[in-house]
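Reminder: ligand-aware prediction takes two inputs, not one.
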Amino acid sequence: MIWNEAAETMPIAARRALQLERLRESVRWTVDRVAVMRERVGDPKLRGLDDLASLPFTHKSDLREHYPFGLFAVPRDELVRIHASSGTKGKPTVVGYTGGDLDIWRDVMARLMVAAGARPGHMLHVAFGYGLFTGGLGFHDGAERIGMTVVPVSSGNTARHQLLLQDFRPDGLCGTPSFVLHVAETLRAAGGRPETLGIRYGMFGAEPWTDAMRAALEREWGCPAYDIYGLSEIIGPGVAGECEARDGLHVMDDHFLPEIVDPASGAPRAEGEEGELVLTTLTKRALPMLRYRTGDISALTTEPCRCGRTSARIARLKGRADDMLVIKGVNVFPSEVEAALLSVTEVEPHYQLVVDRRATLARVEVHVEPAPALLSRCGGAFSENHPAVETLRRHVGERLRVALGLSVEVRLVAPQSIPRSEGKAVRVRLLVD
Ligand code: DLL
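Here is what comes back for the chain with DLL:
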């Protein structure tokens, strides 16, 4: 089933014509209404989609600088919703929606959830947080648009998740990969078997996750896991997502136009090349975004997909450019560490990269928990010095060395000692003075 057949299977030439028309409208809307953008962009002539590359970028810092409403293109009383992302420091990033913007959001979310298997009448268990974060309400509204029964559980409180999953038996489950994995872990610890609950599909996102993590989630829940991507500045979840082919994420590019650029120079990258994803909104009215630098690393393809949808697709997100670590001169994304770690069956998918910046030369240690099978070989009690733990530590170190091309320190830590996430997992822990 395709939710919005006309939009999703539109012939490429017609789509490009629509994109250009909408781009011109959106730029006009923005420069007419947002003083900062008028000064910056002027009155550009857009003869074709390629001319987009001549326009300046928008950065997260622009939103902070014009906090809270300075980049909005409609008067405050025309906003029907505000969301915000907390960010790691200082003021949050504030985003707003008109009634029409919310309608677009519901439609793109409905498209992506249907692509993952959601159907009218199904029940959806929402384990994304509700509130200023866009995850909970984004999935909630999209599911209502489809005609699903929504269970708005929110994140946290694993006991409540266990109870409702066991008693309600939903068809679909959504949340951050790390939190949903934690729910499975607690369910199992309480004697339950998540894979027998009859969940038909899981929709996960809001943080980077690898195919190895996908395999772990599918094993735990006994259903396929689909990747959904988005960011508040553009709309929230609903920018892109996987179909049953799971060969890249379909970008909702009749509403959000993707580009890939060199993260350092900003120069356009060719199709298929890895780089930073840049997004331009084509239809959003409250907070239009022109060439927004997402900071996320991906690649773009316009090759046809076997599902019949004709949109461009992005590769699964490797992580944020600013989460990349430089270890002994080598660039390392936490997702690359995750992929290598999870290829070892005797460790659990709970890990952290601990970066110690207290000495002159920063040191990085990978902390990971051993699987229960190994613990039983240690006589049930965990000790870092047990020969079986030491052997596993060396084995994990070797896997990482081969995968990353450098040797990193590995520590096997006691079961349950790595903090479990309630939302987005913290994969990198910084130790500073
Ligand atoms: O995380 C929106 C969202 C909610 C997406 C639920 C998917 C599901 P923000 O809090 O603004 O919005 O964070 C956006 O999270 O720039 C990426 O770095 C990261 N991110 C989101 N989805 C994915 C994904 C929501 N599927 C930031 N894979 C983005 C990797 C993701 N990273």
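The pocket of DLL is lined by residues 85, 128, 133-135, 138, 205-208, 227-232, 236-237, 294, 296, 317, 320 (CB under 6 Å). The domain at 324-431 is CATH 3.30.300.30 (GMP Synthetase; Chain A, domain 3). We will return to this case in the review session.
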